[in-house]
Write a structure and sequence with these properties.
Layout: E1 6-9, E2 12-15, H1 37-66, H2 71-83
Antiparallel strand pairs: 1-2
Length: 85
């Protein structure tokens, strides 16, 4: 087992040393300082917001396809329009 200090910053782990390990190995990261609950909460809120936006997008796409406005329908209409001229 080997311990190396480092810093976790904005999603990246920066080690103070570069061990010469030639194969993938499991690691455990322990945060030595207290982490504010608000920092974790922001992350959870961000994930929820992204999920909500994605759900809205899926809903809109679903509504468009139910209304007969699928991508294929739009292409067909466009080709009909282009063939008129």
């Amino acid at each position: 087992m080997l311990s190396i200090e480092g810093i976790y910053d904005n999603g990246q782990l920066i080690l103070n040393e570069s061990p010469e390990i030639k194969r993938p190995v499991k690691v455990i990261v322990t945060f030595l300082e207290n982490i504010e609950h608000n920092d974790l909460k922001k992350s959870e809120t961000d994930i929820k917001e992204r999920k909500n936006k994605f759900s809205e997008l899926i809903k809109k796409v679903s509504e468009l396809s139910k209304g007969g406005n699928s991508v294929e329908d739009i292409r067909l209409e466009r080709s009909r329009y282009e063939n008129c001229y």
